[in-house]
Amino acid sequence: MKKNLVDIRALIEEAENSEHKEAFKILDRKQDHRIGVGTRLELPDKQSFFLEVLVYLCSDKAQVDLPALEKKLKLLKKLQKRGYSLSCQDGNCITCEIIMPPQSLSAEYETIESTTKKIL
């Protein structure tokens, strides 16, 4: 990730001390999406790392914005093609997650950050 963007060791320590054995850090937050990185402890000495993109389908306005939804659908399709699992969440959003080695998180974050800027 960008230099010192996420301290992997600190993320692991936070997960070790959490009730659910998971830690998460938000890297980018905009009105229509959020990008973050996290880790889950699966065994005492094994963790999995993931990048998560949360895509908000509608704004706080009551009116549906079809052009914005089309852009978000385009982003969701790109994420799915990259191997992200997509799931519906309460609160008007879709969670997109990919599990990867910690050394790959930086390049993936930069790619997804760039992709969201281009599409949204």
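The above is record 1. Record 2 follows with the same two-line structure.
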Amino acid sequence: MKRLTISVDACIETLALLITMAWADGHLDAQEKDGVRAAASVFNLTKELRERLDQLLEKPIALEELLFDGLSARDKAFAYVAAAWLSGVDNDVHTKEEELLGKLAAQLGFTDERRNELGRIARDLEPLRKDGSTWATELVALFKAIPARLEGDGTENFDVAFE
């Protein structure tokens, strides 16, 4: 079994990105907020990091304010796949979400080819969403599924750790 680690910085910036994506339609409902908070507790984020997420849940920030510069190429791909997945979970990618994904790809330095490749990975992950599941369980499943898709061909077993 191969062990993959996801850094705290990658977790927090990806959650912040998902909050930004969820705000694209102009509002964030209580279920979305509760899901992010529950996922943050599963990932054992510090009190300070959880407080930062709470601030983002109350007031959206611009995509350019997210802190992607210190992330590795794999962590940037991880964040993009998560955002693309979120935009498609309701089977209706809003125009504003598509615009945000385009800006995100440019901000992360992705070519159109890489963006399309990561978009395919996100679409492959869509079955993670199950009837009756909570946002928290979906986000945890998403965060555990992405690394295996980015790192392998689906035939290897991966243990994903959040550090």
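The helical segments are 8-22, 30-42, 47-58, 73-88, 95-108, 112-124, 135-151.
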